[in-house]
Amino acid sequence: MRKHFRILPVLAAVAFLPWSFTLPAQQTPAPQQKPQTQPDEGGPVNDNGSIVLPKKKEDVAPPPAPAEEKVNNPNGEIFTMRVDVPIVNLNVNVILDKTHQFVPGLKPENFVVVEDGVEQKVQTLRTTKVPITAVMLLEFAANSYYFINDMQNASSAFFRSLQPEDYVAVETYDMRPHILTDFTNNKDTIREALQSLVIPGFRETNEFDALYETLDRLTRVDGRKYIILISTGRDTMSRLTLDQMLAKIKATPNVTIFTISTGAFIREMADARGGMGAITRMDYLQADNEMKTFAQMTGGMSFQPMFQGALPDIFGQINESIRNQYVLTYRPTNSANDGSYRKVKVYLVDNEGKPLKMVDEKGKQMKYSIIARDGYKAKLPVE
Fold first, then answer.
1. What share of the chain is helix, strand, coil (3-state, %, to 5)?
2. Does the domain formed by 133-320 have CATH 3.40.50.410?
């Protein structure tokens, strides 16, 4: 059973721009810590009926955003969700389940947004294709070789999917977080940080504390941000509780979390041989559920790869989700700036208001997924 200590005050926030990277003080530095690097210049700063889709090899590039809608952000990012009621900007991804292909060509009338059970009127819709600003948050603790090996393979696969204009920071955690590199688009710097993960330090995996601190730092980075959490999902002795972690996620806009669970194969083998007790099995099931929840709450996706060969496809899905997006705006019927959390759900419909059906060139129906943040926190008025 998971136990938590008495809740201590929330981690202190020290404002460094664009990312507050202060190595945590400890008596014995963790072996993987490296000297802090400075961010590279230019980095992130403070119609009707069914739709017929082309074959994947004939992908249609999304139309560029209108010139008058350029944003003053070095990455060209668009906020997924602004919390300045009464206007809400929402990023929505529509992806085919089988091929993970982004679905282009949707119109404003195809989208239905429901906020707290009340349908909202979509005012504008546009498509963007943008670079990414992401943190690789990696569990690196002295537990099982198989977990560490899975983490190293997954982080390397993500590294290979990066584009020249992407900015990435690398952070690990065991008992506490360790910043390996600030945001950079220098792939050599990122590669060196990942190659330094050889000898782990502590056995503890304080995931809640590390994720909370990462979210806190990201509030001081402008634009849309992503966290690639590669972990077993287990938390051994964080000062924070799961409820506090979920509250922090709800209160942190413009961050999408993608989770990749490690150790799926070795867990399956141990369970099949009777080497995993009931308590351990429940612990891992809880960890899997928490990883899925973190992703779903923020409009991300969660994966549990059994084999290394699945990783290129996983990061292909993540890239489709991150780099191609619909950005829609609406004015909520509830215009109160009361600090409440508004639940949001997005649906696709045809011009008759029926669920939208998509078919391929042979008329075969295709399943799709709608990925969007599940809500936002209305901003309190400034006194």
1. 25, 25, 50
2. yes
The DSSP letter of residue 34 is -
96 C-beta neighbours (distance < 10 Å), count: 18
In the chain, where the domains are located: 51-130+325-377, 133-320
Question: The pTM is what?
Answer: 0.65
User: In degrees to the nearest 10, what's the CA dihedral of 264, 269, 272, 276?
Assistant: -70
Q: Comparing C-alpha atoms, which of 192, 190, 205 is closest to residue 147?
A: 205
DSSP code per residue over 178-238: EEEEEEE--HHHHHHHHHT--S---S---HHHHHHHHHHHHTTS-S-EEEEEEE----SS-
CA–CA separation, 45 and 277 (whole Å): 48
3-state secondary structure of 64: coil
Q: Are 50 and 198 in contact (CB under 8 A)?
A: no
Residues 70-106 have pLDDT tens digits of 444 445 444 444 444 478 999 898 988 776 678 989 9
Q: What is the DSSP letter of 346?
A: E
